[in-house]
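Long-time lurker, finally posting.

We've been working with Aminoglycoside phosphotransferase domain-containing protein (Botryobasidium botryosum) and I want a structural starting point before designing mutants. I don't trust myself to interpret raw outputs, so I'm hoping someone here can both generate the structure tokens and explain anything notable. Sequence follows.
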Amino acid sequence: MARYAFVHTRDRNGRNRLHLKSPQGQIQFGAHHTAERHTSLLERWLLLVRPAILPQNPELYAPILGHPDLHVSNILINTIKPGGGANTTIALPHMTLSGVLDWQHATTHPRLEAAVPVFPDPQ
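Top reply, 14 upvotes:
Generated this for you. Predicted structure of Aminoglycoside phosphotransferase domain-containing protein:
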């Protein structure tokens, strides 16, 4: 039967077997750093990485409200006669948005992650 070397960090009672001075203990990042040091390192990392991840134009990562199920059936339109009253045969310039339905999975996310919904061509 072959023998394999496994490094376990806990014994069978759940106690930590790694000592901070052992090679395995030195690999464990959180084992010998304080929370303040860890936070400081993360903030420095973000300063270095942010320009590569986020675009320079702040409008692209401004938060927007996203509707995941936006299609024609979820949009309510009012059509208005030029003289007043409702009429469903009025042309497009006399239409107003009345409401949007189905908001249960709405999210906020950066504009650069937003997708433009595809609507069918009305013609």
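Before you design anything, note these points.
The mean pLDDT is 73.
Helices lie at 23-27, 35-53.
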